[in-house]
């Protein structure tokens, strides 16, 4: 529909330079340049390398997105950008680029929350999100259960990891098994050859009295490392596929159990799963089984939209325009620890605040 907002979104919170263009809930372009290979030899994302890669990739990626969408920059109704949370230097590159384009093109600027964007992206695939929707966000940087109403203004945290993120646990276990970085996709692949019941790895925060919606993956990671170490010390071969499958089973069991419980406790009948770990095949399978059993509708975007990308930022930006939300001001800054409840960073009347403060 031509009257739906045409929005370009920029994502640079970690190692993906993402530029997406959407019209309302329709995806027109999703250009991503990743620096993941530059980080592989360090076993994790190096912030300085990520920032420099964003800087180099920014203009060509924006151009690629415009070409793919077949739209002119002057036709855009707004420019959205991830204002946080994420790596400070990496975020700054995206925020500066968004400001420059918005200023030069005289378009409204929307600084938006990375986590709300991970939820909103599902609209590009499955249509408007019901209100409320429960969201399980699982990636290298976050593992949270969020209850979302109006996605532009109402995201409430129910629980989060108290130590490692789920994706971080996949990355660390992959390192212990010598499978490389990032660990998620390769553990997922190896696990298909193994038996998820072979080794009984611990499920974190799963006892009566434990916080119902919080997660903990650090104990599981240590248990896997100890188990593998014991095998090696005994001079026995490590059954890599069984370890991968059993570890993956422990993570997905806890994630899906808690997500379904959160839906039931809060009377929510739609669950969406987003973030890089949502690409995991066993997580998708187990979530589907448990949701079917509980009468919950499961929505999981395709893997390319689950990992960090610009389309998710554009999707939330379009929603901001659609719902007439106040744009951000040009003094918008990146906030590496932007709270999840701040779905966007609206215009703040700096002078009014300063005036109040001086009274
Ligand atoms: O959302 P994302 O691209 O970036 C962050 O915001 O962190 O997520 C990346 C994380 C990495 O930890 C990666 O190992 C994990 O998502 N991941 C997976 C799979 N694909 C990516 N974890 C499990 N199974 C997968 N298939
Ligand atoms: Zn992310």
Automatic annotation (TrEMBL):
Residues 27-314 form the Gcp-like domain. Substrate binds at residues 137-141, 171, 184, 188, 280. Signal peptide: none annotated. Keywords: Acyltransferase, Cytoplasm, Iron, Metal-binding, Transferase, tRNA processing. One of its GO terms (biological process) is tRNA threonylcarbamoyladenosine modification. GO terms for cellular component: cytoplasm. It comes from the Bacteria. Required for the formation of a threonylcarbamoyl group on adenosine at position 37 (t(6)A37) in tRNAs that read codons beginning with adenine. Is involved in the transfer of the threonylcarbamoyl moiety of threonylcarbamoyl-AMP (TC-AMP) to the N6 group of A37, together with TsaE and TsaB. TsaD likely plays a direct catalytic role in this reaction. This is tRNA N6-adenosine threonylcarbamoyltransferase. The gene is tsaD.
């Amino acid at each position: 529909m031509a009257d739906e907002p045409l929005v370009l979104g920029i994502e640079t919170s970690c190692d993906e330079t993402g530029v997406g263009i959407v019209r309302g809930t329709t995806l027109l372009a999703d250009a991503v340049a990743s620096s993941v290979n530059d980080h592989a030899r360090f076993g994790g994302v190096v912030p300085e390398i990520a920032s420099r890669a964003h800087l180099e990739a920014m203009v060509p990626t924006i151009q690629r997105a415009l070409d793919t969408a077949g739209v002119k920059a002057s036709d855009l109704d707004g420019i959205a950008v991830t204002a946080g949370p994420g790596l400070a230097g990496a975020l700054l590159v995206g925020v500066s680029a968004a400001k420059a384009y918005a200023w030069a093109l005289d378009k409204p600027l929307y600084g938006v929350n990375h986590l709300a964007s991970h939820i909103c992206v599902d609209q590009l695939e499955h249509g408007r999100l019901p209100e409320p929707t429960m969201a399980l966000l699982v990636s290298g940087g976050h593992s949270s259960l969020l209850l979302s109403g109006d996605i532009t203004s109402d995201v409430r945290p129910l629980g989060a990891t108290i130590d490692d993120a789920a994706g971080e646990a996949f990355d660390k276990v992959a390192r212990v098994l010598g499978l490389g970085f990032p660990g998620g996709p390769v553990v997922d692949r190896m696990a298909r050859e193994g038996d998820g019941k072979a080794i009984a790895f611990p499920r974190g925060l799963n006892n009566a009295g434990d916080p119902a919606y919080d997660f903990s993956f650090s104990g599981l990671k240590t248990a896997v490392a100890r188990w593998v170490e014991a095998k090696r010390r005994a001079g026995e071969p490590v059954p890599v596929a069984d370890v991968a499958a059993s570890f993956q089973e422990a993570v997905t069991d806890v994630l899906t159990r808690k997500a379904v419980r959160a839906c039931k406790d809060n009377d929510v009948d739609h669950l969406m799963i987003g973030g890089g770990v949502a690409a995991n095949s066993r997580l998708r399978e187990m979530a589907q089984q448990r949701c079917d059993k509980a009468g919950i509708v499961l929505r999981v975007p395709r893997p390319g939209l689950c990992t960090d990308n610009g389309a998710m930022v554009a999707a939330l930006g379009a929603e901001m325009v659609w719902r007439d939300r106040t744009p951000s001001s040009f003094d918008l800054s990146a906030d590496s620890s932007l709270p999840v409840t701040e779905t966007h960073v609206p215009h703040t009347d700096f002078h009014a605040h300063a005036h109040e403060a001086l009274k």
